[in-house]
Specification:
Layout lengths: L1 H12 L23 E4 L14 E6 L4 E7 L5 E6 L4 E6 L3 E6 L17 E6 L4 E6 L4 E6 L5 E5 L1 E2 L2 E2 L6 E3 L5 E5 L19 E5 L5 E5 L5 E6 L5 E8 L2 E10 L2 E10 L15 E3 L5 E5 L2 E5 L5 E6 L6 E5 L4 E6 L2 E6 L8
Antiparallel strand pairs: 1-24, 2-27, 3-4, 4-5, 5-6, 7-8, 8-9, 9-10, 11-12, 13-14, 14-15, 15-16, 17-18, 18-19, 19-20, 21-22, 22-23, 23-24, 25-26, 26-27
């Protein structure tokens, strides 16, 4: 059928043109429960997500799922964190759900001092590694995917321990940008273990030098780069100021901070979630978690709509062939097939 449609389209192009788009083939899968809904604020969302796209629940039973990262190609697998559960889970179409790493952060910690001891945000690292925000070790860490050996990369700034590094993004030159809110610590900012005077956003240069870039956000959380790496996006997961900030990036320095989106008015008990993890497609459209689900914005900040699952969504990343958006939604792992492709695929 697909071959016939392509042939018909090619014949029409020779005369009046062909306006019919060909849907990317769906990733073969078993049938999973359908949940939630996709809410359109603009017809332009149809170019990114089909009107009849299914939100599928793949697995459940987690304390707070976070940090999805896709490993491999179309037949690869997904890793994601259960932060309070202190483990990294592995999921694939072929093998289902299993435990990849436990503890994912640091084991044996006093729960009266550490509320979330596990890993949080996960991304691909150089070679056969992943990088993580490691709450329990209060560090940015690297994990070898084969041996599962962990190496702590960044633990201190100006002689003080980090709070609990949360999310990280890697630039093409090898620099790491990461956020450091106090979510791993019991009592958050009031924790006696907190050594940093702020909840910062940092850059670690390829030579290991660490620079404080942002210190005026109350709870910096998600972080991601635009495809051209000229813009750094940072979410602030504060219900009193639930915003997405954008910063112009130039040789590792930030300038021209601007408010990209303000979701504060949408924060309600019956609309769960705060600005947290993000994904970005090849065209620079931003998929950001927030009140009510994953909000989709054009690079200019136009709000196209949001994906709702009924629970707060902590993070999202593209996987499979780059056209599936995986979302860690509180106690669940869910996904939706898209018409766009994630950056890097």
């Amino acid at each position: 059928m697909l071959k016939a449609r392509l042939l018909a389209c090619a014949l029409l192009l020779a005369s009046a043109g062909c306006a019919t788009s060909v849907e990317p083939p769906a990733v073969p899968s078993q049938t999973y429960p359908q949940i939630g809904a996709i809410h359109r604020a603009s017809p332009a969302l149809d170019a990114l997500i089909a009107p009849d796209a299914r939100i599928e629940k793949l697995a459940e039973g987690f304390g707070w799922s976070e940090g999805p990262v896709w490993i491999g190609g179309r037949d690869g697998y997904l890793l994601f964190s259960d932060v309070p559960g202190n483990r990294i889970h592995r999921w694939s179409e072929a093998d289902g759900l299993s435990t990849f790493l436990e503890p994912s952060g640091r084991g044996g910690l006093d729960p009266a001092q550490f509320r979330e001891p596990g890993s949080n945000g996960l991304i691909r690292g150089p070679g056969d590694t992943i990088l993580m925000g490691d709450h329990g070790n209060r560090a940015i860490a690297s994990v070898d995917l084969t041996t599962k050996q962990k190496t702590l990369l960044a633990t201190h700034y100006q002689g003080r321990r980090f709070n609990s590094p949360n999310d990280v993004v890697r630039a093409s030159d090898g620099s790491l940008y990461f956020t450091d809110p106090p979510y791993g610590l019991a009592n958050l900012d009031a924790s006696p273990l907190k050594e940093q005077p702020h909840n910062g956003v940092y850059r670690m240069a390829p030579n290991g030098e660490i620079t404080l870039l942002i210190s005026d956000l109350t709870f910096p959380n998600g972080i991601i780069l635009s495809p051209d790496e000229h813009t750094l996006y940072v979410t602030n997961s504060d219900p009193r100021r639930a915003v997405i900030m954008a910063y112009t990036l130039n040789n590792g320095r930030i300038t021209a901070p601007r408010l990209f989106a303000d979701l504060t008015s949408q924060v309600r008990q019956d609309n769960p979630g705060l600005p947290d993890g993000m994904a970005i497609d090849a065209q620079g459209n931003l998929f950001s978690t927030g009140p009510g689900g994953v909000h989709i914005f054009t690079p200019r900040g136009e709000h196209l709509g949001h994906i709702a699952t009924g629970t707060g969504i902590a993070n999202c990343k593209f996987g499979d062939d780059g056209r599936t958006l995986y979302m860690t939604s509180h106690n669940m792992l869910v996904r939706v097939r898209t018409r766009t492709r994630g950056h890097g695929f």
